[in-house]
């Protein structure tokens, strides 16, 4: 007997084994008997043709090999939400509830003891207690009978219905409208239809704070239409949706704190200007979005932009940013504290990874975390001092001078190094003598002439040593252990510099080289144990 085809099969989502697709045709096919389903598969490798067979086009596919015909009995059209919940949590009357002995009943693998209650009432109690529900990959395709979810699962707050057979946003509303206090919803990996025009705004998402719509083929225009029903949304995940163009979110998404647009190939970096006025946005994820530059045209050198006023965390890793000018621009963000920027072409311009990190830190004044690593105060101080010295010669050649009256660096230099004047104010302008013989960027294996003192043992005479600046603190401790015949693990090192009068800088990271702390020849290393 042939399997029954649902009356609304056209456009429905189906599963066939582990493959997912959309029904594009229902009917007969020439020179065959019976009903066929023409399916456009999510994975085009699963298909055989573009919807045509023996010269007749039965349906259309986006991929020339994305379609095929299957018999209805091979297609899984899915189940309603509540059936999936009962199956997932072992609470299905027909399959998983087994009668135990005496006053017990077994729910899936869980045995529950009853005190004057029957199994149906206990099952209802179990469902009512569910707060966090996941029915991922459970073939959910529709909401089921009206109000059945609200009667059965009254306390749900967090729902994961990702990778199911949900055909449209209306189906999501039909499920969510029965969950009074819904806070988190994951509908990712459901290729569904979204409204294309402004429709009646449902109150289904009146308490929703977190929404994931990754891999749903939603456009930004559709996001803004649906967002009219998300009045308190705080986190929105839109990864891998082929979003290329953005629009201003007028009167919607105003409560948003996190936005994930990763793996969408945006037209250009200027698209970001269209979402720059979201007042509460604290975290923006732009990983692998194809952007090649970042620019905030409303602010000049050394000024803060009015764009992204609350943005604290920004991820721009895996992009095409090739110019350091984009990193300079990030210093204009008034609230930026954390940055991820790995795997961008600009990082290939500096072969020494330590120098690369120092340059980024020095260019962005308020940064506290870089590529998931905390920036310690000593690290920032060292980075800024090195930056000031590395580009000191360029500064002098561009018209810079230690005398404020003669200090007139060119606009070209200030465009490339907008923070340099601030670093000169902070640490003092570099003088010509300080920069003589300097080579570009970090010097490898340059020998430092250092005086080593033991302040707690005045009888120990100071020792002068020549050490390579690439030598780690751990190796320095080993050398001093042999020199002073004391256990290296007990040593505490710091240094004094004529440029930091009255200040003592701890050498507190055994894995860092001397150059990390901006130690220079003539400085004094203090040894305590």
Task: Explain how this protein is built.
By secondary structure, this protein is of the alpha/beta class. It folds into 4 domains: about 10-75, CAP Gly-rich-like domain (SH3 type barrels), CATH 2.30.30.190; about 80-90 and about 120-380, Leucine-rich repeat, LRR (right-handed beta-alpha superhelix); about 380-425, no CATH class; about 445-529, Phosphatidylinositol 3-kinase Catalytic Subunit, Chain A, domain 1 (Ubiquitin-like (UB roll)), CATH 3.10.20. Helix content is about 20%, strand content about 20%. The chain contains 13 helices and 27 strands. The chain has helices at about 80-90, 120-130, 150, 170-175, 220-225, 325-330, 355-365, 375-390, 390-395, 410-415, 420-425, 430-435, 475-485; strands spanning about 15, 20-25, 35-40, 50-55, 55, 65-70, 80, 95-100, 105, 110-115, 130-135, 140, 160, 185, 210, 235, 260, 285, 315, 340, 370, 375, 445-455, 465-470, 490-495, 505, 525-529. It has an 11-stranded mixed β-sheet, covered by helices on one side. A 5-stranded mixed β-sheet has the order 24-23-27-25-26, covered by helices on one side. Strand 15 (about 210), helix 5 (about 220-225) and strand 16 (about 235) form a beta-alpha-beta unit. Helix 7 (about 355-365) packs across helix 8 (about 375-390) and helix 8 (about 375-390) crosses helix 11. The radius of gyration is 32 Å and the shape is elongated. The model is unreliable at about 95-115 and about 440-445 (pLDDT under 50). It holds the Pfam family Ubiquitin_2. Its main location: cytoplasm. It is found in: Cytoplasm, Cytoskeleton.
């Amino acid at each position: 007997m042939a399997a029954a085809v649902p009356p609304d099969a056209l456009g429905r989502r189906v599963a066939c084994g582990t493959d997912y697709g959309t029904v594009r045709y229902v009917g007969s096919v020439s020179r065959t008997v019976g009903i066929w389903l023409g399916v456009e598969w999510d994975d085009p490798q699963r298909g055989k043709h573009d919807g045509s067979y023996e010269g007749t086009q039965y349906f259309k596919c986006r991929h020339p090999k994305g379609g095929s015909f299957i018999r209805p009995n091979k297609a899984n059209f899915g189940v309603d939400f509540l059936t999936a919940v009962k199956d997932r949590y072992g609470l299905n009357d027909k399959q998983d509830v087994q009668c135990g002995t005496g006053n017990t009943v077994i729910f899936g693998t869980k045995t529950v003891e009853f005190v004057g209650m029957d199994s149906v009432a206990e099952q209802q109690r179990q469902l009512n207690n569910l707060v966090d529900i996941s029915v991922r990959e459970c073939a959910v395709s529709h909401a089921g009978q009206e109000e059945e979810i609200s009667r059965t699962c009254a306390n749900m707050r967090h729902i994961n219905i990702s990778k199911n057979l949900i055909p449209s946003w209306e189906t999501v509303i039909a499920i969510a409208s029965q969950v009074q206090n819904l806070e988190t919803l994951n509908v990712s990996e459901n290729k569904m239809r979204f409204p294309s025009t402004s429709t009646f705004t449902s109150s289904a998402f009146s308490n929703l704070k977190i929404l994931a719509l990754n891999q749903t083929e939603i456009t930004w225009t559709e996001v803004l239409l649906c967002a009219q029903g998300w009045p308190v949304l705080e986190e929105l995940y839109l990864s891998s949706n082929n979003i290329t163009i953005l629009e201003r979110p007028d009167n919607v998404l105003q409560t948003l704190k996190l936005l994930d647009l990763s793996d969408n190939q945006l037209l250009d970096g200027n698209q970001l200007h269209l979402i720059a006025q979201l007042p509460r946005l604290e975290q923006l994820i732009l990983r692998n979005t194809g952007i090649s530059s970042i620019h905030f045209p409303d602010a000049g050198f050394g000024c803060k932009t009015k764009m992204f006023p609350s943005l604290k965390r920004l991820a721009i890793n895996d992009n095409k940013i090739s110019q350091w000018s984009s990193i300079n621009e990030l210093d204009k963000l008034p609230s930026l504290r954390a940055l991820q920027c790995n795997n961008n072409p600009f990082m290939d311009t500096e072969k020494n990874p330590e120098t690369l990190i120092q340059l980024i830190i020095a260019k962005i004044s308020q940064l506290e975390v870089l590529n998931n690593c905390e920036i310690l105060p000593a690290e920032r101080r060292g980075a800024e001092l090195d930056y000031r010295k590395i580009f000191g010669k360029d500064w002098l050649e561009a018209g810079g001078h230690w005398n404020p009256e003669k200090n007139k660096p060119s606009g070209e230099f200030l465009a490339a190094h907008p923070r340099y004047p601030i670093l000169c104010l902070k640490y003092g302008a570099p003088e010509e003598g300080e920069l003589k013989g300097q080579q570009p960027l970090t010097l490898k294996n340059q020998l430092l002439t250092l005086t080593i003192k033991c302040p707690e043992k005045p009888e120990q005479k100071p020792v002068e040593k020549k050490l390579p600046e690439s030598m780690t603190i751990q190796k320095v401790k080993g050398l001093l252990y042999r020199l002073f015949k004391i256990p290296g693990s007990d040593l505490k090192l710091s240094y004094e510099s004529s440029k930091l009068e009255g200040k003592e800088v701890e050498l507190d990271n055994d894995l860092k080289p001397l150059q990390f702390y901006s130690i220079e020849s003539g400085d004094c290393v203090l040894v305590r144990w």
